[in-house]
Amino acid sequence: MMKNISDFIKKYRIFVILAVVVIIFFVYKNNQTEIKREDKGYTVKKENLKDVLTLSGQIDADEKVSLKFQTSGRLAWVGVKEGDFVKKYQTLASLDQRDLKNRLTKYLNTYAKQRNNFEQTKDDNWNYQYALSQEIRDAVKRILENNQYDLDNTVLDVEYQSLSLEYSSLWSPIEGIVTRVDTPFAGVNITPATAEFDVVNPNTVYFSVTADQTDVVNLKVGDRGEVIFDSFPDERYEGEVSYISYSPKTNEAGTVYEVKISIDDKTKELPLKLGMTGDADFIVKEENDVLALPSGYLKKDKKGKYVFIKIADKKVKRYVKTGDEIDGKTVILEGVNAGDNVYD
């Protein structure tokens, strides 16, 4: 059987070779057809490329305070309500001060009495400071020192009570809008944890975003971008980077940094409120009127980067010189021309 096959091949060798050539030819043509049919390629052209960095964040303010009383007591007076505008150092509320004032009066009386005792003791023992006996001089020195200590203690009592009276009134260290009043009615017994007043200065609002450690290096103070608030999705507003945190934010899953974006006066006219969310877009890289193609068409070997271009219905390997990669496309400096068809 094997001898018969061998004799057949020898006899019809030329026909066998021709058949193989025909098969290879048709396979090649079929592959070319598949390339044309499936891989439409990409036509190199000049483009404007932008790499946009989008960061999410929310409205915050540089000047905002949460005010609480330092001690418990009965709330005697509340002078503001939510939505009121207050000036700097304006009093917001106060506790019942009758007991504090009585204590202060008592300490003032004690001070006055001690002051008289101080002067009398000093007069009674003044001459003994120069007695001939060392023992007498030492005793008088101790009497006068203790006399001074007693007077100093009464002064401290008055100062402490004066501070307590001052702390019974709550005042705002900034001007702004009262955004929260925990206990709006007088006559209620409160503790420092149950009576809180929040004040925000609307003139100091900014847009706070967080940037990953790989993104924050692309930003610097003074960069301008566009801000889109979720509450106003159809409008775009200008913003400028005013501050980039040097240390990462705590309690975050990754290493992220706060970036403060100041907003212009026109944007501040919007009814913005703390916590409103949105996005900020920054152009971190831009190339205009350059040859470019999708980065997926680029190949690389030991000699460098190359692409396949179409010449006479064939894919030809051609090495290229590339520039920056922007938004998924690579700038081509040399190697291809506008209008060339590039294939994968």
Description:
This protein is an alpha+beta fold and 344 residues long. Among the domains are: 1-37; 53-63 and 200-284, Efflux pump adaptor protein, beta barrel domain (Elongation Factor Tu (Ef-tu), domain 3), CATH 2.40.30; 97-167. It contains 6 helices and 21 strands. The protein has helices spanning 2-11, 13-38, 98-125, 134-167, 213-216, 265-268, and strands spanning 42-43, 45-61, 64-68, 73-78, 85-86, 91-95, 169-171, 176-181, 189-190, 196-200, 205-212, 224-229, 237-244, 256-263, 277-294, 299-301, 304-311, 314-319, 321-326, 329-334, 341-343. The protein has a 6-stranded antiparallel barrel. A hairpin with a 2-residue loop joins strand 19 and strand 20 (329-334). The longest helix is centred in the middle third of the chain and has 34 residues, at 134-167. The radius of gyration is 42 Å and the shape is elongated.
Key features?
single chain, 344 residues, alpha+beta, Elongation Factor Tu (Ef-tu), domain 3, 6-stranded antiparallel β-barrel, 5-stranded antiparallel β-sheet, 6 helices, 31% helix
